[in-house]
Amino acid sequence: MFKKKGSRFIAFGAALILIAAGLAAYNVYDSWHAEKVSEEVYVQLSDAMEGNSVENGVINPNRDMPTEEIDGYLYIGVLEIPALKLKLPVMEEWDYTRLRISPCRYEGSAYKDNMIIAGHNYSSHFGNLDQLPTGARVRFTDVEGNVFDYTLKWVDILEPEQTEEMLEGDWDLSLFTCTYDLSRRNVLRCVKDINRQSL
After folding, report:
1. 18 class by beta-carbon count within 10 Å (0-12 exposed, 13-18 middle, 19+ buried)
2. The model's pTM
């Protein structure tokens, strides 16, 4: 009887190990796939934006952000974080399906100096935001070529349910992602740097 119970526990343990290995493999594939799709979209979006470049121009803050459609999704521009060697397209609106492709605008506008961008915690997306030091440079370029330079000033650690706190503060740009175990959100708060001309 004890042998049968022991065999069942061993079989159950082996099944759990196989499930965990399958989930880990899926996460690796999902991250790899997101990286490849983002790279392809970034190239297409950059090609569409080629020749457009307006450094810190004056823009009507009440206008809608222009979009470019690629593969059925609308994009508002590209985000660059040189310290992490990231160049990513940014979708117009977010949901969990879109986040598996690229970072997405969560709320706000670059024109109103209150844009919030959400990204998945893939290493090729926002998974390494917690390694970014204050003072790091960030750039967002909209699809018309308007360039917005920012400096990272503050890092917030929020609980998953603290959605109101995500929107608080007078920050020109916020970037956020959940930690791998989903226990908290890392939120990077940035201010516009109107004097910097290049990354």
Report:
1. exposed
2. 0.77
